[in-house]
Amino acid sequence: MFLHTCTSRHKVPYSLGFILLVLSLSSCDYYAQPPSCLDYFALGDTSGYELLEGGLARHLQSQTVWYRCPAGTSFSQGACSGTMLGVSWHEAGAFAEEFSEKSGYHWQLPSTSELNSIMQTACRNPAMNPNVFPMATVDNHWTRDSSLIRSSRKCIVYSYQGQRSCREAAESVHPFMLLMRQ
Predict the structure, then answer these.
(1) CA distance 101 to 105
(2) How many CA atoms lie less than 13 Å away from 62 in the CB half-sphere?
(3) Minimal CA–CA distance to 137: which of 113, 168, 159?
(4) Are 129 and 119 contacting, i.e. CB atoms less than 8 angstroms apart?
(5) 60 pLDDT above the threshold of 90
(6) Residue 177 Cα to chain centre, angstroms
(7) Phi, psi of 93 (to 5 degrees)
(8) Contact call for residues 40 and 123 (beta carbons, < 8 A)
(9) Three-state SS for 9?
(10) What are the pLDDT digits (tens) for 112-134?
């Protein structure tokens, strides 16, 4: 009789614990993906940015000023037009210098941290506000940074979710964004 009493006394807590465990795990979705930024931001929502004339946008938190279109394209009437450039790291730097001479502003490739500062964490695909950067694509984008271990390797930021890597060969071909030097 003592054995039966002890057994039945432990069945309830173990059963209840198992049920609570199953219920708590069933409410968790470890595979849930953040939404696409195209769905996340309402049309016209430019929160966190001040849109300036000439296709420029000031990121309010970092106070950096960005050209809203990828290099090779131009901003007109709220949209980017043209063909986005995909070039080597050295060619991207040369383009920024030439763009500076022609525009009268001083442009450069962003640092890895500057490019990461405009990446969204609540959404992805690409992880940029499409109302601010209307032609943003999912791709590896050049930054001006080099690997600390091997200077021949350059840094990129993958715009799907803002991950960075500093293992890219400088001869690889990637698009890039331009940041105004202050």
Answers:
(1) 7
(2) 19
(3) 159
(4) no
(5) yes
(6) 12
(7) -65, -40
(8) yes
(9) helix
(10) 999 999 999 999 999 999 999 99
